[in-house]
Design a protein that fits this description.
Number of strands: 22
CATH class of the largest domain: Mainly Beta
Largest sheet: 14 strands, antiparallel
Shape: elongated
Helix content: 25-40%
Order of helices and strands: EHEEEEEEHHEEEEEHEEEEEEEEEEH
Structural class: alpha+beta
C-alpha cells in the first residue's frame, strides 16, 4: 500500500481553463515564443505532489571489511572412555539444545555404578550399626558404668562411619555422571559443521566428536587501523552493511585495549542484534562495517523522489518561471537535475551531496513529473 503523503507535501493544481488559454496561444502563432509552461499538461487530474528538500545532520562514515562469526561455536569432545555406537546427526543438520548427538558404550560405566551403589549400601549399614552402638554406650556412660575411653571410641566409630557413607555417596554420583557422559548432549541450538569421529571408533576423554555453531547469536569481527580507532571510541557508533544491502545499527561492541603488534590494528567485535533479516547471513560472510568519524549537514529528499537513468541519478525540481509567465498559474516549470547521491536512511530519505539545494521543491512521483517535463516542451515548441 502506498505511503500517505506527509503534511508538508504541497500540491500544484491547475484549472482546465489554463489548457484552453495555452491552446489559444499556440493557435495564434506564438508557440515558438513560449519557452516554458506550467506542469498541467500530461498530469492525471492536473495534480503534481512536491516536497521541500531539507537539511539534515548526518554521520560521516568510513567503511572497513568485516567477517561474520558465531558467538557460540564449539568442538564437543568425549568425557569418558568407550566406543561410539551412534551419531544421530551429520554435517548441516540442525540440532536442538539437549538433543543427544553421540552415544557410546556404557558397560564399564554401568559396572562402576553398580559397584559404587553396593559400597554405599555397605557404608550405610555400618553407619546404622555405629549409631546404635553409640546410643547404647551413651546410656551406659551416663550411669557411670563404662569408662570415658569406651565412650570416646564409640563416638569416633560413628563419625568414621558417617564419613565412609558420605564418600560412598560421592562415588555413586561420580559413577552416575560417568554413565551420563556416554550420551553426549548438545549444549545449545545450532548446526553441525564437522563430524570428527565415526561409529565404531574408540574414544577417550578429550577425543573430538563433533563441531557445531549457533546462528542465533552472531557478531562481526573487523580490524580497525590505529588512526581510526579513536573515532570509534569517541562516537561508539557503527553499522553493518550486509551483502543484501540491508543496514544494521550496532550498539554493542568490544574493543581490545591494545593493537596487534604486526598489523597495528585493533580487532573489534560488533554484536549483531537479534532481529529478523530479509536474507539470512552465515558465519564467514564478508560484510562492510561503517564507522562514524564525525557529523556534517547534508541536503535530504525522499528516496522515492530520485529517478534513475541507468547509472545516473536525478530528480525533477519545480522552479519559478516569473519572466515567461502570462498568469499566476504559469509561474512554475519542471526541471530535471542530475544528482550526486549519498546513502539512504532508515526513514526512507536519501542524502544528496550535490544537485539540489535546501528549500527547493522536488516532485515526489518521478514518473508523473517526467510526463509533465516532456509535455511542457511539446507545448513550448
Amino acid at each position: 500500500m502506498a505511503s500517505p503523503i506527509p503534511s508538508f507535501v504541497r500540491f500544484n493544481s491547475f484549472a482546465p481553463a489554463l489548457l484552453t488559454a495555452i491552446a489559444t496561444i499556440l493557435l495564434s502563432g506564438c508557440g515558438n515564443d513560449i519557452e516554458t509552461v506550467v506542469t498541467a499538461p500530461g498530469i492525471p487530474q492536473g495534480t503534481l505532489a512536491t516536497v521541500d528538500a531539507t537539511a539534515s545532520e548526518v554521520a560521516i562514515e568510513i567503511n572497513f571489511d568485516g567477517v561474520i562469526e558465531a558467538v557460540n561455536q564449539a568442538r564437543v569432545s568425549s568425557q569418558t572412555n568407550g566406543r561410539v555406537v551412534s551419531l544421530p546427526y551429520d554435517v548441516g543438520d540442525y540440532v536442538r539444545k539437549g538433543d543427544v548427538i553421540a552415544v557410546m558404550t556404557d558397560t564399564e560405566q554401568q559396572a562402576s555404578l553398580q559397584a559404587a551403589k553396593a559400597q554405599l549400601s555397605e557404608a550405610q549399614a555400618k553407619l546404622s550399626e555405629a549409631k546404635a552402638q553409640f546410643v547404647r554406650i551413651t546410656d551406659v556412660y551416663a550411669k557411670g558404668m563404662v569408662a570415658e575411653a569406651s565412650y570416646d571410641q564409640a563416638k569416633a566409630a560413628e563419625l568414621s562411619a558417617q564419613a565412609r557413607a558420605a564418600s560412598a555417596e560421592a562415588a555413586v554420583k561420580d559413577a552416575e555422571q560417568r554413565l551420563a557422559y556416554t550420551r553426549v548432549i548438545a549444549p545449545y541450538d545450532g548446526i553441525v559443521v564437522k563430524r570428527l569421529t565415526e561409529v565404531g571408533a574408540a574414544v577417550a576423554p578429550g577425543t573430538p566428536l563433533m563441531e557445531g555453531l549457533s546462528l542465533e547469536h552472531l557478531r562481526v569481527q573487523v580490524n580497525i587501523p590505529q588512526q581510526y580507532i579513536g573515532h570509534l571510541r569517541q562516537h561508539k557508533m557503527a553499522r553493518v552493511i550486509l551483502p543484501s544491502g540491508e543496514s544494521i545499527a550496532v550498539d554493542e561492541m568490544r574493543m581490545p585495549p591494545s593493537a596487534d603488534a604486526n598489523t597495528h590494528s585493533f580487532t573489534v567485535l560488533l554484536q549483531l542484534p537479534s532481529i529478523e533479516l530479509s536474507e539470512p547471513v552465515f558465519p564467514g560472510t564478508l560484510v562492510k562495517v561503517a564507522v562514524v568519524s564525525g557529523r556534517e549537514t547534508l541536503t535530504q529528499i525522499p528516496d522515492s523522489a530520485v529517478a534513475y537513468r541507468g547509472e545516473v541519478a536525478g530528480v525533477y525540481v519545480l522552479s519559478d518561471n516569473l519572466d515567461n509567465a502570462d498568469s499566476a498559474d504559469q509561474r512554475e516549470r519542471v526541471e530535471f537535475r542530475y544528482l550526486r547521491i549519498g546513502r539512504a536512511t532508515a526513514e526512507g530519505q536519501r542524502q544528496i551531496l550535490s544537485g539540489v539545494n535546501v528549500g527547493e521543491r522536488v516532485a515526489l512521483d518521478p514518473v508523473l513529473a517526467a510526463s509533465a517535463y516532456k509535455q511542457q516542451f511539446k507545448i513550448a515548441n
